[in-house]
Design a protein that fits this description.
Elements: E1 7-10, E2 13-16, H1 27-31, E3 34-36, E4 39-44, E5 47-51, H2 53-66, H3 75-89, E6 94-101, E7 118-124, H4 132-137, E8 139-143, H5 163-176, E9 181-185, E10 191-194, E11 198-203, E12 206-209, H6 220-231, E13 236-238, H7 244-248, E14 251-256, E15 260-267, E16 270-271, H8 279-293, E17 303-305
Parallel strand pairs: 8-9, 8-15, 12-13
Antiparallel strand pairs: 1-2, 1-7, 3-6, 4-5, 4-6, 5-17, 6-7, 9-10, 11-12, 11-14, 14-15, 15-16
Bound molecules: 4'-deoxy-4'-aminopyridoxal-5'-phosphate (PMP).
């Protein structure tokens, strides 16, 4: 990723990155007081479109509401800031990172309460998160020794900066052991999600994915896949999934804004299905990327043209 040359929208203005600076006493830096989004804009057959912009900004504002973080902008203003930031940077496709965080409001743990947060939007060029080859060949993943957060410890439904300490433990451990990514179990030992992706299993033509109660982020790509599956007459079952189901699945794939739809070819060095991108995963990938090349009808109005 490279954001060096791009303009960043910071508290209402598009400024060069070196001007978008914060205090070392920023509350967020010390206590993790931040919520954010990861959004993609695609170059489509009809021009650049942000994918499910309103849904991402709704989740951003929901995350802020959960933590009672105040900030001065409306959802529409943040959405327009994003479109504008892509235009001023001249990006045809991009990864977009809006962030709401508590700045230098004092070092008391409660100092951010009732005060306005800082708001920024950065855009950058960013290719396939787990590599272009991963999208075709699939990746090798492990089940992490780290569990996801308990639902009454940190709410996984909020996309908060602090949650990504858990993600870093899962991701770093997987890399150290030679895997591309880690899958975590929840506090009950049931399948949860990856460090930055939701997960689906395919068994006998049906799709299975863990429920929100398994400590997952309710992913927008996960929701997109549920919609696309329905159109393809594929059943999606949201239910608790035991670890061993990963080894016995016909197909496993991970999904997220950054990871898009990435097949999993092995889990804990056990080959999954044929050890490559399976037919259902391929069908969903084609339907997903078809939204941007015009082969899949945008019947839900997910494309937000800039
Ligand atoms: N889970 C976690 C922990 C994530 O960070 C992400 C990426 N935002 C996802 C799931 C997938 O969510 P989405 O499809 O909305 O990007």
């Amino acid at each position: 990723s490279d954001s060096k040359s791009s303009l960043i929208w910071f508290n209402g203005e598009h400024v060069p990155e070196h001007q978008a600076t914060v205090s070392v006493l920023s509350h967020a830096l010390h206590y993790g007081t931040s919520v954010f989004e990861g959004i993609r804009a695609y170059k489509t057959h009809k021009g650049t479109a942000v994918f499910r912009l309103q849904d991402h900004i709704q989740r951003l504002f929901d995350s802020a509401k959960i933590y009672r973080l105040k900030q001065p902008y409306t959802q529409e203003q943040v959405e327009e800031a994003i479109r504008e930031n892509l235009r001023v940077n001249g990006f045809e496709s991009a990864y977009i990172r809006p962030l709401i965080f508590a700045g230098n409001v004092g070092l008391g743990v409660g100092s951010a309460q009732g005060k306005n947060c800082e708001v920024m939007v950065a855009s950058m060029q960013w290719g396939a998160y787990l590599g272009e080859e991963a999208l075709e060949q699939g990746i090798d993943v492990c089940v992490s020794s780290w569990n996801r957060v308990a639902p009454n410890t940190l709410p996984s439904g909020a996309k908060a900066g602090g949650n990504y300490l858990s993600s870093q433990l899962i991701n770093e451990e997987s890399h150290r052991h030679g895997y591309a990514e880690g899958l975590a179990l929840d506090v009950n030992g049931l399948l949860s999600e990856g460090s930055g992706e939701n997960v689906f299993l395919v068994k006998k033509g049906k799709l299975y994915t863990p429920p929100l109660s398994a400590g997952i982020l309710p992913g927008i790509t996960r929701d997109t896949i549920a919609h696309l599956a329905k159109r393809l007459d594929l059943e999606v079952v949201e239910q608790n999934i035991a670890r061993e189901a990963l080894y016995l699945a016909d197909e496993v794939f991970m999904c997220g804004t950054a990871a898009e739809i990435t097949p999993v070819r092995s889990v804990d060095r056990q080959q999954v299905g044929a050890g490559k991108c399976g037919p259902v995963t391929k069908q969903l990938q084609t339907a997903f990327f078809g939204l941007f090349n015009g082969e899949t009808e945008d019947s839900e109005g997910w494309l937000d043209f800039i």
